[in-house]
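Entry 14. Ran structure prediction on the chain below.
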Amino acid sequence: MSELDRAEALLQRGLKLSHLRLLDALSDSGQISDAARRLGIAQPAASRLLGEVERIVGRPVHERTGRGVVLTPIGEALALRAKRVHMELRDAAREMQEIDMGHVGHVRIGSVTGPALDRVLPALRTARVTQPKVTFEVIVATSDVLCQNLLNGRIDFAIARLPVGPERLMFRAQTIAPEPVSLMVRKGHPLEREVPLEPAQLMQYDWVMPGPESLLSQTVLARLRALKLPEPTQRFSTASFLLTLALIQQSNAIAPLAHAVCAAFTHGPDAPYRVLPAELGIEVEPFGFITRTDTVLTPAASRMAQLLLGEQV
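Output, C-alpha cells:
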C-alpha cells in the first residue's frame, strides 16, 4: 500500500482534525486533563477521542504512567504530523487575513545575535517604511532554541544554524555567510593599545564565553589549539549577552563575540567597549535562512525574507 493509500485509509476510517489536535496537545502536556482544557472539551470527551484514534490506527498511541500519559512511538509520529497540520492551518488563516486586508500582517523572526544586529535590524528599518501596516516580533536566541521555536510554530523563519542530528531533515536551509569573531574588552583595557599584540598576551586574562557545548566556545578553542595556544582561563561561563557585557565592563576579561556585535558596541570614541587589535582568524560556521521543510511563508513574511536576502528568496 502506498503512503497516499495509507493516508486515505486513515481518513476513511474516521481520522479527524479533532483527533490530531488532541495528540498535539497530549504531546505538549502529557496530561489528558490539560489537553482537554486546551481543546475546550471535557476530560471524558478527550479520553473518548483518544480511544477513537487507537481504533482507527489499530495500535496503541499512548501509555498511562504515574505522572500522566506518554505517547508511544506511533503516537509521537502522529502528534508530530498533527502539529504541522495545525501550524499550516494557522498560517493559512493568517495568509487569508493578509490577502483580505492588503499589506497587513504579523511576522515572527528568530535570529542569532550577530545577524540580528547587522541583517535583521536594517531590514526592520526598511520595513517600517515599505510595510507600515505589518508588525514584527523578533526572538534573539541560540540556534537550537530558535530551531525548536520554528518546529513549534512560534516563529516564521530563523537566521541561524541547523541543529545536529536527525532533526536537520525537518528544516530547509539556505546558507548566508560565515560569522567572523572579534575580541571585545572594556574601554581602557591594558591590552587596548598594545600594537603589535602578541596572542600569548591574551592568555594572561580571563575569557568570558558560553558553556563548552556552545558552537562559539568550540570554535574559539579549536582555533586556539590550531594556533598552538593554551586554553584561556574561564572562571565564569554564561550564554547571557547582557551579563557578558557587564562582566567585561567591570573587569579585564576578554569576550569573543561576533564581529557585527562588536562593531555595534564599539562605534565612536565614547563607546564603553573596544575591539582588541588581535586577528586570530576565528570564524564560526556559516549561518543561514531556515524554515520548516515544505512550509509556505505568508505574504508579509515572504516580503520580509526578501528584504533580508534580496533576490535569493
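The first strand starts at residue 62 and ends at 65. Will compare against last week's run tomorrow.
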